[in-house]
């Protein structure tokens, strides 16, 4: 069993409209945009990162907003819900705030003894806010949400799978232990993590596979401290029979990817070097940052990428 993985690093999803996506996360949810860059493989598409003040691993929600992309079809073989942690007692505030912002799918429920508020993103994304007592992770207050109500980072992701058995064994191999079970829902957690320590598996044998599109999670990333730990994880996965990519430089972290038995794309990402490697902390997410191989496209991108805020320059 591995011990290098310390919880979630980031979750990456797809959207249809960049400006609406930016408004939802920075104005409605009050997160900080910590990076404005482009998709490595499709540089005419943004890659937007939303997180806490510094973009700490375990807080980072990222998006590829593809113009004209069709909406995804929910199903199995995907992350169905991304849950964020909020302070105990904060759900009434959020229920009112989200309703005022026209957010749909609001539903209060209890899962494994925790109060949560489910809601939908603008492309049908599945989200939840979960009350967590004494979460030590700091809250970003620059988005208009008070500290005593704000989002600390991720609580968990929930995967919908036709057969959860092989994925459960994979999570155990990655250092997670089954914590609780209720019906077809199993909860796994990693000890000594970064606060984003939980993965749920919902087994749905009769549900059709998902079709990815706007509102779908593209991949979920798990955090390791550095490149040395990442290489240890990669070797262990390869030795176990998984097809794992070489290490890829993503500018703000190094990444490896592999497909799980249930069809979900997993990434293992390093905590280093972080989002302040090319921007001062006070100005994270303000300027358009380009991967070196796409730097020559800057004049074209500054003319053709959609402004994210009224009056905001793309550059």
Tell me the series of helices and strands, N- to C-terminal.
Answer: EHEEEEHEEEEHEEEEHEEEH
How does the overall form come out from the CA principal axes?
globular
Q: Give the CATH level 1 class.
A: Alpha Beta
Low-confidence stretches: none
Mean pLDDT: 97
Structural class: alpha+beta
In which order are the strands of the major sheet placed?
Answer: 2-3-4-1-13-16-15-14
Query: Distance N terminus to C terminus?
Result: 45 Å
CATH fold descriptor: 2,3-Dihydroxybiphenyl 1,2-Dioxygenase, domain 1
Number of individual domains: 1
Q: What's the CATH H-level homologous superfamily?
A: 2,3-Dihydroxybiphenyl 1,2-Dioxygenase, domain 1
The major beta sheet can be summarized as: 8 strands, mixed
CATH architecture: Roll
Number of strands: 16
Rg is 18 Å
The DSSP helix count reads 5
Share of helix, binned: 10-25%
Written description of the protein model:
The chain is α+β, with helices and mostly antiparallel strands and 315 residues long. The chain has a single domain, classed as 2,3-Dihydroxybiphenyl 1,2-Dioxygenase, domain 1 (Roll), CATH 3.10.180. Helices cover 16% and strands 35% of the residues. It has helices at 18-28, 91-100, 165-173, 227-240, 298-304; strands at 8-15, 32-38, 46-51, 60-65, 78-87, 107-111, 114-120, 126-132, 153-161, 176-182, 185-190, 198-203, 217-224, 248-249, 253-259, 265-273. The strands form two sheets. An eight-stranded mixed beta sheet has the order 2-3-4-1-13-16-15-14. An eight-stranded mixed beta sheet has the order 6-7-8-5-9-12-11-10, covered by helices on one side. The longest helix has 14 residues, at 227-240. It is globular. The relative contact order is 0.21.
């Amino acid at each position: 069993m591995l011990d290098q993985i310390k919880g979630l690093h980031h979750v990456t999803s797809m959207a249809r409209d960049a400006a609406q996506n930016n408004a939802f996360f920075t104005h409605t949810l009050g997160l900080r945009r910590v990076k404005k860059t482009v998709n490595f493989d499709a540089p005419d598409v943004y890659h937007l990162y939303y997180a806490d003040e510094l973009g700490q691993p375990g807080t980072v929600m990222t998006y590829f907003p593809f113009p004209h992309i069709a909406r995804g079809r929910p199903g199995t073989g995907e992350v169905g819900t991304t849950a964020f942690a909020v302070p105990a007692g904060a759900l009434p505030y959020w229920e009112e705030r989200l309703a005022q912002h026209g957010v749909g799918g609001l539903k209060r429920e209890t899962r494994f003894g925790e109060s949560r508020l489910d809601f939908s993103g603008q492309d049908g994304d599945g989200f939840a806010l979960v009350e967590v007592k004494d979460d030590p992770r700091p809250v970003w207050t620059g988005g208009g949400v008070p500290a005593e109500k704000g989002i600390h980072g991720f609580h968990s992701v929930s995967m919908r799978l036709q057969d959860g058995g092989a994925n459960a064994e994979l999570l155990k191999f990655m250092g997670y232990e089954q914590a609780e079970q209720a019906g077809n829902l199993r909860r796994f957690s990693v000890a000594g993590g970064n606060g984003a320590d939980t993965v749920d598996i919902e087994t749905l044998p009769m549900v059709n596979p998902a079709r990815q599109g706007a509102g779908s999670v593209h991949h979920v990333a798990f955090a390791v401290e550095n490149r040395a730990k990442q290489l240890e994880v990669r070797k262990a996965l390869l030795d176990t029979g998984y097809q794992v990519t070489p290490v890829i430089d993503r500018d703000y972290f190094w990444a490896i990817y592999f497909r799980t038995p249930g069809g979900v794309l997993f990434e293992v990402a390093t905590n280093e070097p972080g989002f302040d490697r090319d921007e001062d902390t006070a100005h994270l997410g303000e300027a358009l940052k380009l991967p070196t191989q796409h730097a020559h496209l800057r004049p074209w991108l500054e003319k053709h990428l959609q402004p994210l805020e009224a009056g905001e320059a793309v550059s």
